[in-house]
Amino acid sequence: MAELAGLKKMGVFEVVELPKGRKAIGSRIVFKVNRDGVPVRRKARIVAKGFSQQYSVDYSDTFAAMAHPSAIRLVLALAAMNNWFVNSADVEQAFLHCDLHETIYMQPPAGLEEDGNKVWRLRKGLYGLSQASRLFFKHLAARLKEF
Which of 20, 21, 98, 111 is within CB 3.0–4.6 Å of 139 for a Cys-Cys bond? Predict the structure, then answer.
C-alpha cells in the first residue's frame, strides 16, 4: 500500500508497546475513487479517529485560521481589476509535514495490525486528528515568515 509506505518514509509513526494507563485512538483506511478521466484511479488514506481524542490529554487547541470566502472573492476581484497575477498551491500530504507535540498512540487500521500489544506512536500530524489543521497552520506560518 503506497499510503503506508509514504507514512513510514516521512517518519509519521513508530511501532511501540502501549504504555499502561494510556489509551490508543482508533484509525481506519478511507478509500477515494477519482474520476479524472480515464483510467479510474483509486486512492487509500489512513486517517485517525480524532473524535475519540480527549481534550487536555491528546490535544489542547484546535483553532486554525481560515480565509472567509468573501475575503477571497475580494482579493480575486482586485486582482482582476488590476491585472495582477494570481497563483495557488496545493501541499500534498500537508498534515504529514508537521511535528506533533503531544504523545498520541493510535491503533493501526484493520488489516495492518501489529503483533502483540503494539500500537503506533504518532510523531507527525495525521488526517483526522483534532489538532492537525492547527499544526499545519503553525508550520505554514513559520515557513512563510522565513521569507
Answer: 98
Parallel/antiparallel/unpaired status of strands 118-124 and 13-17: antiparallel
Which of 23, 22, 27 has its CA nearest to residue 7? 27
Average pLDDT of adjacent 10-residue blocks, the chain of 147 residues: 80 90 87 63 78 63 76 93 88 77 88 83 86 81 86
Q: How far is 104 from 23, CA to CA, in rounded Å?
A: 9
pLDDT value, residue 40: 57
- Residue 100 exposed, middle or buried by CB count within 10 Å (0-12, 13-18, 19+): buried
Strands 118-124 and 27-34: unpaired
What pLDDT score was predicted for residue 59?
A: 62
In the chain, which ranges are continuous DSSP H helix? Answer: 2-9, 69-81, 132-145
Closest to 28 (Cα-Cα) out of 44, 14, 47, 13: 47
